[in-house]
Write a structure and sequence with these properties.
The structure is a single chain. This protein has helices spanning about 10-15, 65-70, 105-110, 150-155, 160-170, 195-200, and strands spanning about 1-5, 20-25, 35-40, 45-50, 50-60, 75-80, 90-100, 120-135. The chain is α+β, with helices and mostly antiparallel strands. It has one domain (about 1-200): Pnp Oxidase, Chain A (Roll), CATH 2.30.110.10. Strands 1, 2, 3, 4, 5, 6, 7 and 8 form an eight-stranded antiparallel beta sheet that branches. A hairpin with a 2-residue loop joins strand 4 and strand 5 (about 50-60). The longest helix has 11 residues, at about 160-170.
């Protein structure tokens, strides 16, 4: 394993070339469920700087990442080479979820040069990267990419903004551990991430 000072050069090229990556988060304390999510679709991930990345988070029946970031901000992104020389890159850091209702959302979305669709986006996950490392990846299998699926985009294209807001209210109310995902009494939708907001103050 090698630890790098920043995301740049060959490392950045590798990250940006991968068609998918994995996201890991967990609630605080000894209980609760660790969550790992696969992410794909070209145009939904962007390197914003030597220590900052972001990706588009689309509506789905679960929103564990958002719930965990609200609570503690911890996140790891992992990229694997399924073609070419073996390699695994991990980005450890602290993130915040910037939902469609947040004033920072529109500016962050403009950082993505060619997103496949914006109507179905639920939030932008904005990550300050504190540790960058890569390792061999010798056991990762070689696999050929056939193409992106468009099912996620198609699933939401007929839903209005009001429909999507209701979707978040009904299906994204709490995590599997019972943590609130978006609004809680006395707060604005998506503005509860005290850890993330403090850490990212000035971004956007």
């Amino acid at each position: 394993m090698k630890v790098h000072e920043r995301i740049g050069g060959r490392l950045r090229d590798f990250i940006e070339a991968q068609p998918m990556f994995f996201v890991a988060t967990a609630p605080s304390g000894p209980g609760g469920h660790v969550n790992v999510s696969p992410k794909g679709m070209a145009g939904t991930f962007v390197v914003l700087g030597e220590h900052r990345v972001a990706y588009l988070d689309y509506h789905g029946s679960g929103a564990e990442t958002i719930a965990h970031l609200r609570e503690n901000g911890r996140i790891t992104l992992m990229f694997c080479a399924f073609q070419g020389p073996p390699n695994i890159v991990r980005l450890h850091g602290r993130g915040r979820a910037v939902p469609v209702t947040d004033p920072d959302h529109a500016a962050l979305v403009r950082s993505f040069p060619a997103p496949p669709d914006l109507h179905g986006v639920r939030a932008v996950i904005d990550v300050d990267v504190s540790r960058v490392s890569d390792s061999c990846g010798y056991a990762v299998p070689l696999m050929a990419l056939e193409g992106d699926r468009d099912l996620l985009v198609r699933a939401h294209e007929r839903r209005t903004d009001e429909d999507l807001a209701e979707y978040r209210r009904v299906k994204n109310a709490v995590s599997i551990d019972g943590q609130p995902i978006f609004a809680t009494p006395g707060t604005a939708d998506g503005r509860e991430n005290v850890t993330g907001d403090r850490h990212h103050r000035g971004h956007g």
